[in-house]
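I would like you to help me understand the sequence and structure tokens below and explain how sequence relates to structure.
___
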Amino acid sequence: MLLFSESFLPQATERLILRRFIDLDLERFLAYRQDPQVARFQGWSMLSNAEAKLFINEMQTAVIGIPGEWFQIAIAHKQSNLLLGDIGMQIYAENPTIVEIGFTLSPDAQGKGYAKEAVQALINSLFELEAINKWHNKSCSNG
């Protein structure tokens, strides 16, 4: 079984920090999670304020890497710590050497290469753990 230490997060890239959610993320998280243009490409429904608060609280203390369970990682701007989006990862319960990832970015963070930078950092970290040998993503047509 893949074990993640608490040192797995935060991770820094050139422009980003991948970290656990913080309470100050609520407003921006709710804004992009309630945006119909963002939600149409995702597998989740829009969240209420109470649901978003609960989600953030759960992710602040969730164990990272439990097979079969999704874990969301906040994507924040390195200089401002402003939430830009999030990456979800789920290690497959039936084959824990495979991880599925997905990401969501706030509309104002799209088109700047942040998703590529964040996903690349996460994938590199997962392969460095030497327990993951394949990653899987699902892509919705956004054209």
